[in-house]
Every structure is written in C-alpha cells, then in structure tokens.
Fold each of these.
Amino acid sequence: MSTPALELNQVCKVFAKKERDKTKARFAPKKRKKVIALDDVSLSVNRREIFGVLGPNGSGKSTLIRLLSTLLIPDKGTIRVFGHDVEKEEFEVKRLINRVSVDAAFFKKFSPLENLTYAARLYGMPMREAREKMRQIMLRLGLKEETFNQPMEHMSRGMQQKVAVARGFLTSPTLLLLDEPTTGLDPHSKRDVQGFVRQIRAEHDATILLTTHDMEEADRLCDRIAIIDEGKIIALDTPKGLKGLVSKRNGHEPTLEDVFIELTGKKMEEKEVE
Amino acid sequence: MNTLIREMRGAVAFIERNINLIKRYWGWELVWLIYSLVNSLAVTYIGAGMERISGQSLDTQYLITYLLVGTLIWSYLSVIFYSISEMIAWERWEGTIEYTFMAPVSRLTHLVGTTLFAIVYGILRTLVILLIVASFFHLDLSGANLPGAVLLLLAGSVSFVGLGILAAVLPLLYPERGAQMTNAAAAILLLISGVYYPVEILPGWLQVIASASPATYVIRGMRACLLHGESTRALISTVLFLIGAGIAVIAMGLLIFQRVERYAKRAGRLKRSG
C-alpha cells in the first residue's frame, strides 16, 4: 500500500490566551486561559484526493492548516506529509507543500509579478521557467495582463485572492493547502478557481486539502469531507456518505448544510478562537 | 549542488525584495536619509561651535573630524543593524511572515541575503551622507589610513550582523512592540559605544558595558586610522578580535533565533498581524 499523502495521528493543539478577570480591578494581571484548538484529531488523506474540511470559524480549520504548513508545532500527536514528520523533517515537508490562505498576504506595494518572483525564488525555481508559469497561471485564473505590473494595493480583494491562488500553484506543490481560497470572490472568479483546482489535480498529480465555509463548493470539489467542530472531527465521509447520515427534508435529498446543522447543532456562524 | 543553487536563489529573493521595498517606499527612504544627514550636520556643527561655546581656543578641525567620523560610522553600523533586525518586522508589517516562514529556505540563507543587501546599502547610503556633509566642512584626510579604515569597517560589520540577528528575535517574540524594542537596543549601543565622545568619560559601570559593544572598538579604531593615520599592521589585532567576536555573536544569534522561532511555532506567534 502506498504512503498516504497526509496522516494525522491523535493531534492536539492548545493555545494560552490572556484574559482580564472582569470581577477584578482594571490593572489586575490578566489570567491565562487555555483554548483547545484541535482535540485528538486523526485522519488520513490519500494521494490525488481533494479532501475538504468543513467547520465554522474557530472550529480549528486554520490551526490544522498551520500545523501542516510547519507554522505551528503540535502539542501532542504526529503529522506526516508523504511519510515525512512535519516536526522532525520540516524542510522536506516544506518542499512538498504550498498554501493559499483566506487573507491574501502580500507585499501590497509590489506588483503581482514582483510578489510571485519573490515566491519563485524562495522555492528555488529557475526564473525563466517561473516567469512563463506565472503568466500562464494568472491568465488561466482570469487576471488581465495589464494588471501584472500594477501594485497589489490597487487591486480588488478578489483579484488579490486570485494572485494568492496563482502563488500557491506556482511551485507545483504535491500537497496544496487551500484555506478558504474562494472567500470574497465573485461567482465567476469562484468558478475560475474551482476549475483550476480540478485541473491541477488532474494534470499535476497533486493532493489538495481544502477548508471552506461554502457547502456547495465542498460538495462539488471534494472526494471526502471531514466536519470539524470545537477542534474535534465529528464526521468524515464522501459527500454522498455524509448526506446519507441525515434523513430526507420535505421530500428533498439533504444538502451538506443540512448535515452540518444536524451534526453540530449550529449554522456556519462565526466565532474566533485563534 | 542542487541545494546550493536553491539556497542561492533564496538569498537573491531577499536581496531583490529589499531593493523593491526601497523602490516602493522611496519617500520613507528620502525622509530617513534627510534625517540622518541633518543629524550628522547638527552633531558636526557642535564641534564647529565648541570654540565659541567654551570661549577657549580649541583645535576645531580635529573636533569636527572626530564627531564626523563618529556620526558616519554610526550611520553605517545602524543601517546594518536595522536592516537585519527588520527582516522580521517588515514581514509582520506586510503580513507575509507566514508565507516566508513556510518556504523551504533556511534561516541562514534568509540572513545571508539580508546581510549582503544591508552592507551594500549601508556603504552607498553612508557615501551619500559623507559627500554632502564634506561639502559643508573642510575635511583634511591627507594623513588618514583609508584602506585600514575600510578593513576595520568591514570587520565591525560582522558583529553588527550578529547584533542585528539578536534584535530580530524581538519582533518574533513580541508581535506588537518588538520593532520598538529594537530602537531601544540601538539607542543603548549609541550611548555606550563612544560615538560622539570618548568612552572614558562614562561612569565606570557603563564603561564595563561599553567594552562589550563591538561599535566601541570600530569607532575607536576608525578614529585612530582617520585622525592619527594608524597603520594597518597596528589594527590587525582589533580586526581579528572584531571578526572573532562577530562570528561568535552571529553563531549565538542564530542559535537564539532558532530557539525563539520554535517557541513562536509552539505558542502560535507567527500569525500575520500577531
């Protein structure tokens, strides 16, 4: 049997948060409060799979992505990316992954080409190959050539997010971590990105882990989905299998949203933990 | 070989990024240059005015050169210090810290790229200030040992690279106030290193601390070279001491940085805005 693309075994992550005791004086020292971001999470993602993680904000999705990106160290448990331990073989893991986060983090005064050039050099790409690839990906994502040299700060949120997606794909990662990549995009741009995700999987043999709030997106793109709430995985199956957990509503097949509400008892409403 | 090429490309990423930052924030650079220039002129005019202030006959030319050497060397060393200490602060301001830290590039490469940029930028910036300030005062450097001064300056840069790495730890540890803390560290170095006055006039306990500052030896040696024409042979022991101390400070800086990076990953302090 081949090594899974991703393997999490009993992973826990707890953050300490300083909070003021409202019953005490204003300048009294703040108390440390423990916030459990991930609680005993185990899962395995197969090669070439598009694996979705659904959950409200504060459920632990971003912590999971940060752990896989080597930006956090787990308190307990192990994480392996293509057999490499994220803590002990950090450098090998970094070479295999890339990430698109919900907040398009760029040098805002740089142009898309300058930002992507920085990324290409960080990942050790030869520049001739990288320049050609940057243009191809940005055009494929629907960005116009005249925007390539304009400062990012003059671009709309949607366009910035497309550049973020281009940066994630540029290095041809074997494991691509997409943290709500279509949040803030208009329906047309959303379709561009979703089409590109499928194309990347088909052409580049990539494994994709996608966190999203968008149930339709998860349903359309993902081979399997984990529903996460308060740091715990409460269900994991194919979209069809998850829908099978819930009975029909008014004679209609249940949607993923129905499944989510049934299993968590809440809507996709937000509360920030991290 | 492949790894070396990758790392070289990574180092170029940081050099190019810093050049682009200067191009995009040229207004800031201009303001900072004017501030440094006016500061150098103001300090040097104190020397020019000492005869009138004290009402006594003094060697004004010597005083001017004494202060000018201090202010120019400090200008250069502080550029090295700030450029390196800001390698993390910039990423925090722009929100790119997570992206850079998950890239497969070693922290040593990060440092090499930043240092190469800082030395070239520091030399060019100091030359511009020197040329302008020299037009205000009559400078007689006919008896100066210029090659010795350059040698000493480069040897002193090594220690400042190490101090810069130590200061870069602060924005990593303290997302909100770390950058301001590096200003405090630079101010302490300015106070104790004999930039504008001999270290010997400081209280005994401050003189002890001054002996731990590499800038003390650089500035003392530079004055010996430029004001008294001290031979390069006589400087060799100081140069060797500065290189040795510099290597030790860099090694210590890297070790501490590595540990603090690990702590930041445990505590979740690499988030984009802190």
Amino acid sequence: MSEAPLLEVRGLEVRFKGRKGALARAVDGVDLSVREGEVLALVGESGCGKTTLARTIMGLEKPTAGEVWFRGAPLRYDGRSLKAYRRGVQMVFQDPTGALNPRQTIYEAVAEGLRIHGLSAGEEATVAEALSVSGLRPPERFFGLYPYEVSGGQRQRVVIAGAMALDPWLIVADEPVSSLDASVRGEILALMLRLVREKGVTILVVTHDLGLAWNIADRVAVMYLGRIVELGLTEEMLSAPRHPYTHALLSVVPEVQHVEQQILHGEAPDPTRIPSGCRFHPRCPLLQSGEAERLGIAERCRGEDLALAAVDGDAAHVAACHAVPSQGV
Amino acid sequence: MSTAQVTVSGRRVTWQRRRRALAAAWRQFRHSVPGMIGLVALLLIVAMALAAPLLADESDLRAINAVDNPRWATPSEFPPLGTDNFGRSVWAQFVWGSRISLLVGLAATAIAIVVGAAVGISAGFFGGWFSAVLMRITEWFLVIPFLPLAIVLAAVLGPSVQNIILVIGITSWPVTARVVRAQVLSLKERLYVERSRALGASSRHLMSRHVLPNVSPLILANLTLTVPVAILSETTLSFLGLGDPTRASLGKMLEEAYSAGAVTRNAWWYYLPPGLGVMAIVLAFVLIGQALEEILDPRLKERRS
Amino acid sequence: MSGPMSTEPFLSVRDLTVTYPGGVTAVRGVSFDLEHGETLGLAGESGCGKSTVAGALLRLLPRGTTVTGEVLLDGEDVLTMRPGRLRAVRWEEMSIVFQGALHTLNPVRRISWQIEEAVITHRPSTPRSGLRTRTIELLDVVGIPKSRVDDYPHQLSGGQRQRVLIALALACDPRLLIADEPTTALDVMVQAQVLRLLEDLQRDLGLAMLFITHDLSTLASVCRRLAIMYAGRFVEEGPAHDVFAAPTHPYTVALAAAFPVIGDRRFRMAPSGLGGDPPDPRELPSGCPFHPRCPRATEECVSWTPELLSVGAGRRAACLHPGGGP
C-alpha cells in the first residue's frame, strides 16, 4: 500500500483496573489502519474490547501504550489537540435516545458541534443541510422538535446529522443499528453507505453483526479478547474465513445456511485472565475436535502466542492462527 | 440541495419551544391549589415587606419616639396591633420585622444555593482527589450541629444582619451540595454528555450546556425548601439574642415579647403576629416548593396519587 | 386435564382484541391455533402488539385493560377464568420467559431459592428433600452445573441468567412456553446457545412454544410456523421456512430483507430497509395500515382493509397485491 492510511492504530493497549484490583487488558496490542473512503467493520462479541478500541480512537480513553495516528500525525491528549482532532473524527452511538439531551431541540443537538468549534457563521444553513443529507426532510420541520417527539430511527439520523454538520473525515459508529427495529436498520445502513459514496466520509463501524459487515463494509476485522485475530476483504473473508473463531461466529448467524452450526461453549472470555498461548485456544473447536493434535500444532496453540500473519501470501488477508499456513509478509 | 434559503429560523423555533414549555409549566402550576395558595400568600407577604415604609414609620420602632404612647395597649386601644412594654407599635415592628426576616432568609438561601451548587457540580463533575476534598469539607459542615456553630460564629463575627446572613448561609449549603453532586454524578454518565465530549466540547461547555440545565430544576426545588429553613434559623438565632440588636426581625420580636413577659401578661397581640408571620412565610415556601417538585418531576405525582 | 383425544387444538385464540387503559388498541383481532408440541413464531417491529398478545394469553396486562375475544386452552377460556383457576393455569399449563433476565430475578436470593419458591408456590405438597433434587434437575436441564445452583444472580453471566429464567419457567412442567424476545439482549454466540437449548427442550419435552421476536431470521430456524404482525394484526402466516424464503406480503419482504444472507450477492453493499416509521396506534392509517410505507400500494389500499386470505399451501396473507410466494 503506497497511500498513507487516514487513521492508524499502532500497538494500542488499554488496561483498566477492574474490581478486586485485577488488571483487565481490554485492548491488548492492536494494529489497524483505516484507509480513506472505506468502510471497515470491527466485529466481535461483547467484552472483546471493540467498544474500548472505538472510544480510544475517539480519544475518550487514553491508551496505556501505543498510539493513534490521524492523517499522518500522532494524536496528542492536550485539550487543544483533542478538540482539533474531534472536528475531523465523529462518533455515532448505539443508543440514539441516550445520545441526545432531552432538553435540547433537534436544531440545538445538530448545531452543538458547530457552536463548540466556533463555526456559527451560516449555522442555520449548515444544520439544515446536515439534516437533509441525513434524510430528515424538510429539515425545517425538525428544527423545533424534541428528541422524544421523533421515532428511534429518526433520532439516529439526528445523531448522524450532528456528526455530518462538522464535515468530518472519519465517523466511528458503535453498533449504530443494534437498538433499532429491523425495518429501520436497513435505512440507516443505506444512509451510511450513501455518506461514504457521496460525501467521501470514511467509516469505522463497530458491531457484533456480521450481516451488517456484508451489507456495508469493504473490509472486516474480527476481534477476540483485545486483539484482532483476522482481517481481510469482506467478500473473501466471509466466504472463506480462516480463523476458527471467525468461522464459528459466521456459523451461528441464522442467515447463513449450508454451514453446520459451531456453537462455542462458555461465555465471552474474561479480559482479566487472558489465556497463555493462542488466546482463543480454550474455546477453539480445532483443539477440541483433536484436529490440532493431528496437525501437530496443539502444543504451540497452548503455549505460543502469535501475531497476525498473511494468509496464503495475500497481504490483504491476515489471521492469527497456528493452523493457518503462514508465509512472512 | 437548496438549503441556502432557510425559511424557518432554527434559533427562533428553539426559543419558541422553550417559551411554550415554560407556559405549560405555569399552566400546570396554576392548577395546583396548594401551590397557588402558597404563591398568593408569598406575594402578599413580599408586598407588605416592600411597602413597609408606606405602612409604618421606621422611627416608630425606637422606644424614645414612643414615650407618649400607652404601654401594653390592646389592638382596640391602639390600632391596628396594640403596643409593647415601651409603647412601641407592634404593627410597625411586624411590618419592618417581616422585611428583615425575608431579606435574611432569601440572602442566606442565595449564598447556600450558590455555594452548594458550585461545590456539588464541581465535585460531581471532576471527581478524583478534588471531589474527595470537597466532599470531606461538605461532610464536616454537615455533621457539626447547627446551633453551637451558629452561636460561636455569631459571637465571633458580632451581631449584625450581614453576619446573620453569612452564618446561616455557610451552615446550610452542604445539603444542597450533596443533592446536586449525586445528580451530577448520574448526569455525567449520560450518553449525551459523552456525545458532546466526542464533538469536542470542553468541560466548561459540558457543565453549562448539559449539566447545569439538567440540575437546575433540582436546584430550584431545593431553593424553595431552603428558604423556610433559613427563615426559621434566623428566628431561632434572634430569639436566642444573637440577632442584630438595632434591626427588628420577627425572631427578635418574639425574643423581646418573651423577655418582656408578654406571655404571662397574656398580651397575645405582641407574640402572635410574629409567630403567625413566620409560619405563613415558611408554609408559603413549602407549598410552592412541593407544587414545583411535582411539575418538575412527574414521577412524584404518580407516587403520591 | 386435557380431554382424551379431543379434536380441538391445544390453544385456540379467537379474535383477540386488547385495548390499554389510555385507549390505545394494541391488538386488533388476532386468531391462531397451536397444537401440542408445535412452535409458532410471532414477529414484528416494536409496538406492533406482539408482546401484548403474550400478556393477554397469561392475563398479565395492566389493570383496566380491555381484552375481548377468546383464549381457549383445551377448550377452557383463559379470559373468563376465576383467579384461583388462573393461578393454577399460569405456570402449570403455560409459562413465560421474558427478555432482560437481570430485572426478572430477585438480586438478593440464591437462584436455588428462587426455583424452590416457584415449585412450592404451585405444589405446596412437594417434600423438602424432593425440592432440592428437583431444583438441581431443572438447572441441569438448562445446562447450569450443580456447583452453581447456590449462586446469586449477579454471579452469573447474561446467558446463564437467561437459562435460569428458562428453568424457572419449566418448574411446573408447563405444556406451553411463551418466549418473549428471550435472546434479544444476548451476544451472538450466547444467543445461539440459548436458541439451541430452547429447540432441544421443545423437542425433548414436547412443549408447545410461542416464540416472539423482532428478528425474523432467528424464527426461521426455530419455529415450524410463523406469523408476522403489523399494527395489531397478522399480515402473513404460514410455514416458517416458506415465509422467510419467499414472503408474499410486502412488509414481510422488507422484514426478511433487513437481515442479509451472508454470501448472497444481492445483499452485498445493498442494505435494504423500509421507509417511514411504524404507525401510531392512536391514529392508524385508513384502509391497509401498511399502505403509507408500502412499495406496492395503490389507491384501493387507502380505502380497503385486506383480510387474511390464502396465498398458497397453508399460507395466508392480508394484502391486496401479494407477490412472490410459492
């Protein structure tokens, strides 16, 4: 890749002190780059660290180690740098109802970013433009309404309009449709796709839903226990996943037929106790079925940690699994 | 998109909605019988206090000017409210005393609310050691018994109206601080505060645009409940002889009536007016406060009905 | 209690209409039958009345709600039952699993206590010793190991709590289990586990099941029959697989398309949704209530309210312009 990525995450680690003093390694060494104009889906179960990663990218969480680079410069955490950064990077939340102040009208909610950044010139025209770009037309009809007076899907559009008002480079969307009704879901996803195509926005979408990735993402990154375990182009990866975890996640999506369900046992694992070796090994179907034994890698699975490596020499598709024959990148 | 010519002004629409919401709250208040009784009573009392110079001559308060008046005159002998042991008009004392009592109550409440809200908001919003220190100070004020502290402070500072206001003010802010802090703690976890932060908002913006508007109903309700406490405190302190000796207040009237032996002489016209006056002011504020609380927090209404 | 070889269905709901105290009619004439051991899926957006149907079956609706129609359980009308009989029917004949297990379990009691309480309440004669065995057995059925039976709810994960709720619902060997969004708040993998558990239980215990969710795709794999609700009415019903694979009502089409088939190129970079918002039950549109959002709507749809009519083998739809289908 010759062109520099829009956003780059290098060796990012975020640790929290949990209850009883246990150290939770929520994000445990993530390298990720987001290219300009793409939609990248970050997929995983709850507790895998995907939301923490998104918040760290927004600068809402300070990394314990590692850096976030945006447009060729590292993010610094003083007030002025953060404020400047947050003009270019916007966030969309899972729960649009909670994300809007019940005492603000829709107009104020959308204008808030403009006011924070002192862009009050032409404020009303910008707000109207952002609302109509987000599918709330005619915008004037929505100016004086309070969030509780519009539907859930429209509230999410208001949040998106608030982000679009600042004309951002990147939107980080954390489960943008999971609290919405099925029929509204597609509409919001279509809107996001339209923003990418027509407004040139880049989107990093965090989700547990592989179907969403198939709907809108150019690339998919699967995260497990604080690390990315597989990353590649959506079509390649979802039609031929290489990591057993991706495979299992894909098999339980009800819409995927002709794939035998591979239900992993146990809950999402605990970031305060990350297993040795490959972090997925205690739940790995390859180990449980004896397949790993047959391949002669069982020992390495249990004892040897590993990084992402190119699959079949294809630098665009990387996975972290001992069973995937790897060639150095 | 032809959005250049926006026909409706967003700011104006927003203001219209605000005004309409305020009007709706007022309509609701008007339908609350206790609230309206309290409001009318309070307006009458305030009008009387403001009009004191028109209702009675301030010089009537001095004993030197009352030597020609009969002592212990009943209301029928010396209308409208009779005289005290020096022959001073009880009516004049009552009118001017209400003025001082209200002034002390409101000013002390203003101090308590401003300090309490500032401490509560900053302790709740910032957290960490800063909050810990502020809250320890708050608790310190909260656990010290009010009367001894007030007596000591009044004695050290000297008896004057300003000092009474100060004493009551600095002893009644901790309750407000705690209530406000609890609310702020829950507010700052709201997603819309996080959204605003992600939009680039500074702490000042978050506090003035999101936290303050959402705690202000609570502060308002707290205000109406702090005023009666402050007025009662003023009465107590004056009754104990810690008030300003040169200014009449309802508490001071009670104290003087008591020490002059009004009770044993059965001179009801001397001790009843200040007693009922304090009660009326306190009750008016409590009634207004409860009505406001119900409007601002609709959940309360359901629980009571 | 069931009469031997009765010809009537196990559960028969006839023209069920529910109006809430505020005057909102949430369910407007719903009829369906459920045989022993059969699963029926009920799908629709929030506010379509699907949870109200569940509440009406168990008479768990707020005071002042008007319920008309019939809910016949083995020929006996639940809606007119006396309170004593109703208590016996709830839990012993039909029980319910809600979503949001954290709020349904008592946080200060061990899960074993909560299950024992459910058993004792309905079967006071159960001996003490038998009670413990029964509790362990019930939790074992839902996959909670013996070592965890004396845990408190907060010590369990979300999936385990949902399992405890299922065990609670099974405590009195009901013949009908109503599952109201049982997997909505759960993670994908845990959701698959709970769905698998419900499928197994349904098969092994011969339970009849009413499965309510907004996620059409989960129903297609769990249920034999499927009904789609919109604005308080069924708009389409039929065998689950057929309805999901070849929907005929435009609303079902939109609902099915909302969940893409991964690997299907038609959905790739083409999320599809439904414009507009669910109707306000206070002001339903005239004619077919779906017409303002419907891509096939014609002028007749504005004035004509369609009834459920046959659109193929075992399938019915309430649409003037049904399409696709078998």
